[in-house]
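Protocol step 4 of 5: obtain the predicted structure for the target chain.
Materials: sequence only (see below). No template structures provided, no constraints applied. The aim of this step is simply to have a reference model before the mutagenesis design in step 5. Sequence pasted as it appears in the construct record:
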Amino acid sequence: MSVIDFFVNKMLELMKGLPLLILISDENGCILEMAGDEAIKSVVQQSGIKVGLVFNEHEAGTNSINLVLDHREPIQLVGDEHYYEFLGSSACYSVPFQYSDISNLLGTITIMTTIDQHNPFLLAMLCTVVDSIERELLLKKQNRRLHILNQVVIETTRNGIIITDRDGNITEFNKFAEILTGSRKQDVINRPIPDAKINDFIKEVLQTGKDYEDIEFMLCPLTGQGELVCLFDAFPIRDENMQVMGAFAQFRDITERYHTQKQINYLAYHDDLTGLPNRRFFTGHIDELLRHGVNENSIFAVMFLDLDSFKKINDTLGHNNGDALLKLVAGRLTACCNAPGQLVSRMGGDEFTILLQDITDRTEAIQVAEEIISAFEKPFAVDSYEFYITASIGIAFYPQDGTNVEMLMKNADIALYRMKDDGKNNYNVFKPNPNSGGIERLTLENSIRKALQLGEFVLYYQPQIDILTGKIIGTEALVRWNHPTLGLLPPAKFIPIAEETGLIVPLGEWVLRTACLQNQLWREKGFAPMSVSVNLSSRQFSKHDLVETIKEILLETRIDPQYLELEITESMTMNVDVAIEVLGKLKELGIHLCIDDFGTGYSNLYYLKLFSIDRLKIDRSFVRDIMTDSNDADIVATIIAMAHKMGIDAIAEGVETMDQLDFLRSQNCHEVQGFYYHQPLPAEEIEQLLARSSEVKTNLQR
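Step 4 output (structure tokens):
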């Protein structure tokens, strides 16, 4: 089991982020171990599948484990191919393993995942892993049976074997050692090992008696064949008095396995269609850059690029030709951005992102954008068709437009959609306040502190709706500034300034206190209890006295904690240990927790359970295009399905049309907010809505 666990953990680590559950059974179908995705494990355990269960066809019906045990060959069952209905939304891949020297069946290894993650590559990958396990099992078995000094099959093993005397001179050097190192036995016998790195290990073994196991390194044979990847073991040979009398070393060629693992890693971080880096790679690269690669004087640019009217071309020429076009676009973008420090990636659909590092000013990024726009002036040729397509580009700059991945990408996306609204086929540089100048910003910055003292801020509330009943089940508190000269200002006008100046902390506390007071007032007026959602800022979340502050507000406002929901962003949970501690203390108060704008960051689903999250809010950027962008539709459906499996509620924001509502209803998302129902409203108008709802209920009861 230790050998199997090693390779299973390696596979889970390489496939981190995918919902996979791995089951290991013995030759009788008895489940020995389950590892991987906790959500899937919980579901299958509820069905009765657990460690110790014996799968047999008489009791368990047709299943992949028994099929593999009966036929001794890899099997996959997907969706409706399963005997049990509850497995109809899953994909299962099973492979037998055995002692390969005597074909003695030992058991099976099975991968279970959701049906939307079905990929035949998983079965191929599992076969490769099982092959590696069988080789390791065979090696362990041989080493247990044969004492090194009496080993008579040294020339038949497929491992490279080297044995030295006490002085480190070679006494045995088998033919596979010759193949792997490129050295001939007659040239090295009775001499030190020619490879300096191997020789250093052997010296350490001889001098200290230390063992080495599974050391991975490259070998470059002198025969001219390609570089080999090997696992290297070395340990001392002792006499009857336990004195070191020599050293034993062996090499196992894992080149094929190594390249398979590299391919798995490549697929996890690259787009399958274009070969470009994907969203995971792009965001991870920027995050790494922000942590280690920039100083206080550095600037870089993030670009979002979207093809104009791609859907029409896709619908007209078909998806195959649409894919061919995307490959050509990827090639053209790569040609435009091939300088050091420039990175092109594909987000999905017809959306690409570009990172420009090491720029000295904004004009360099603008020049690249202009070059890309010019490159699209040339026609594209696909399947005997020649046509023109244009692109729109949004640009955000570090640090002016954001100091983290989430904000930079969000602002570049905002700039892109402003460009599309302005006519497409051009670039647009993000401007935080496109309709205001520097004087207005300075005025706002100087006025925020006074506005808190004078009570100029007001709260609006956007109703959250249960689409099954149409009832208001909660509200989200949203702050507005009733400025004495500029009028009612939306949060986009002043929240960034408040965050920069640190005034977001007292403003956030005022919002929390006011929202709790208002919610408690509605309850005291006799309206049905409902929750109020309040957004926490990053600065608030990082304050050491956050929990105590919230506890005081709860006592002061007399609100029942179960009717308060705090919304945090994914970026706030990047420090996992701190997030677990803070969120755990908040949960102890009885407060509900929600991840806001879910899907735009880098949440690991495993951590959602650790954070005790109650609800996920699906970002409006995905909801907006679910009827026109299949990728966004798939993302939304996946978030909802995974939330349900983990026992977490999902709410979609930004719902504006009946089609969007119908889609969400079809995916069993029952909670929404958006202009389709209500825009954010003052407290008195919310009260009128609640009063009308109560009147309707009373009339129906009569």
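Step 4 remarks: The longest strand covers residues 471-483. The first helix runs from residue 2 to 14.
Proceed to step 5.
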